[in-house]
Write a structure and sequence with these properties.
About 30% of the residues lie in helices and about 20% in strands. The protein has about 180 residues and is an alpha+beta fold. The two termini are about 30 Å apart.
Length: about 180
């Protein structure tokens, strides 16, 4: 497997002043990072548009794992639910739009008041939020990620090589990494 740089390149929002900084946390976070790393190869889809049942199970498992870890780290349920939704949308996009039987890598890290989510799929692509028609079944994933990032004063974008998407959210409501 080749090594890939995942330096953020901002897509949405005006972040010329740099990354968002979390307000002073109510409790001091440990310097050590709390992280989740998940790597898997996608399965060939059952039909042209739908991911395989196996890949959908991976997304559901990642969502449950994230909710459990965020709760263990002391995040409120509302923020944990938003983080799980971002993870679910980014993983689903990687599965749907990445190359067949490609490796998907998901990383979530919490350190010093900043939660970082990165999902790469190895397929260089334009990653931007756009309005989907009201009756569309797909096409809202990055719009949802954008809305959650804005709500939490975070940001999101594509990796420097355009093979992945990242989201950063400042976190203030923690009791420390588990």
């Amino acid at each position: 497997m080749t090594s890939t740089s995942v330096q953020p390149t901002t897509i949405a929002g005006n972040f010329a002043e740099g990354p968002p900084r979390a307000a002073e946390p109510a409790r001091q976070l440990p310097r050590e990072a709390d992280a989740i790393l998940l790597c898997f190869r996608t399965s060939p889809p059952a039909d042209h548009d739908d991911p395989s049942a196996e890949d959908l199970l991976r997304v559901a498992e990642a969502r449950r794992t994230v909710l459990r870890r965020m709760t263990d780290c002391g995040l409120g349920r509302s923020l944990a639910d938003d983080v799980a939704l971002v993870v679910s949308e980014l993983l689903t996009n990687a599965i749907l739009h990445g190359e067949q039987s490609n490796e998907v890598v998901f990383m979530l890290a919490l350190r010093d008041g900043l939660l970082i989510i990165i999902v790469t799929d190895g397929a260089p692509a334009c990653r931007s939020a756009h309005a989907a028609p009201d009756d569309a079944e797909h096409g809202r994933g990055l719009t949802i990620v954008n809305a959650i990032a804005q709500e939490h004063h975070g940001r999101w974008g594509a990796t420097s090589d355009k093979t992945g998407t990242w989201c950063e959210l400042p976190v203030t409501e923690t009791r420390g990494a588990a």
